[in-house]
Amino acid sequence: MTLSFERVKSMIEELTNVNIAVVCGLSLLVLLVDTSDDGGCDPPYRSKTHISFDGLEGHLTVPVFTKTCTSDVKVVYTFEGVADQRVQLTLNNVSLGWDDTEHDTVNQCETGDFIKVHVFVGRSKQELTNVCGNRTFLKFMSTDNTMELEYVKRSSTKILGPAFSANYKFVTNFGITTGIQNKNQPNIKCMFEYFSSQGNNGTFSSPNYPGYYPRNTECHYIFHGSQHERIYISFKYFDVEGHSNCKDGTQSDYVELSNFNIPLVDRKMDRLCGTDVVSKRKEISSDGNFFRVTFKSDDVYDGEGFEAAYQFRKISSDQHMLPRGEKMVGRTSVLKSSYILLSISLLISPLHS
After folding, report:
1. CB of 240 within 8 A of CB of 308?
2. For residue 339, what are the CA distances in angstroms to 234, 319, 333, 335?
3. pLDDT score for 337
4. CA 235 – CA 221 distance, rounded (Å)
5. The CUB domain covers which part of the protein (predicted)?
6. For residues 298 and 215, what is the distance between their CA atoms, to the nearest angstrom?
7. Contacts (Cβ under 8 Å, ≥6 apart) of 330
8. Of 65, 176, 277, 290, which is most buried by a Cβ count within 10 Å?
9. Domains 16-171 and 180-319 share a fold
10. What is the CATH number of domain 180-319?
């Protein structure tokens, strides 16, 4: 007789009084002991077992404490997807306890309850955040196909009940929901294309927006207009970690715009980073009917990324022949001035013959 997973899950829960939370996307089975007698305090370290099941999203089961524990309790959740997946983790209604004897809010993460999120960059395990206190909404994304969440309940804290809720997804679109994802480029993992034939305006954003963008990630946004169209881009929100010049070697994440395709750099376009781009650059336009925007993050520091609006605008055939930014009014005045100077020159020249 073959038993379904749900039937096996039900039988284990009935026999062992163990609450089984499935966290998978080819991923994880976490076993959390939760009895009314211990108030959620035992065992102090929660066990976990990795099993592969289908399921690309779900809700995380978080232990609920009904009494103050005599020792710290640590719960670790590990997420593992397949090679081309990223883990997207959202924390909601975070309400972590703190030590009443600690009045310095800076030290609350050291003495109170906390949540840490870790990602893996190459072989290096890196801490994305250390959360304490109260937060309404936080969203993170892994650098590769793995992520780890660590929750510690201190014995010195008295706040009981649910500490937070969490949702997870295993995604291949980097959390970018607009454009057409191009997966046919062998050396580019993140590319999205926008065509005026499918809409003359819209928005695009950094990976995982609104949330912290992933580390060590490069995404390309390619805009294709018709023959007599230009692309106009304006940033509605911009928080990309970096120094003022955004150059290589400064540990800066950046956004780069170019009239050329990959990998050519457009030296007329400055890199953008920091937080004041919205006020400084109201609108950026392309030279022709093609435009590329590149977002690149390094393996240190994080930001909330960007959201931008794009628009394809038609131009007249005369404007199409002019350099970018030059208007017909300015060209006409220059021609008139040249004509006047030429006329004066012809009148004066016979006097010297």
Report:
1. no
2. 39, 22, 10, 6
3. 39
4. 14
5. 190-313
6. 6
7. none
8. 65
9. yes
10. 2.60.120.290
pLDDT of residue 245: 82
Tokens for 68, please give them: 């103050």
- Can you give the pLDDT at residue 56? 84
Other beta carbons within 10 angstroms of residue 266's beta carbon come to 15
The pLDDT of residue 174 is above 80: yes
pLDDT of residue 220: 97
Cβ atoms 146, 86 nearer than 8 A: no
Separation between Cα atoms, residue 329 and residue 322, nearest integer Å: 12
Q: What is the DSSP letter of 202?
A: E
Q: Where are the domains of the chain?
A: 16-171, 180-319
Of 9-18, 168-177, 207-216, the least confident? 9-18
d(CA 302, CA 176): 17
Q: Which of 263, 231, 268, 242 is nearest to 255 (CA)?
A: 242
Are 126 and 299 in contact, with CB atoms under 8 Å apart? yes
Q: What CATH homologous superfamily does 16-171 map to?
A: Spermadhesin, CUB domain (2.60.120.290)
Is 53 strand, coil or helix?
Answer: coil
Structure-block tokens of residue 178: 């607009």
| Residues linked to residue 21 through DSSP beta bridges, in sequence order | 30
Mean pLDDT lowest among 266-275, 278-287, 292-301, 321-330: 321-330
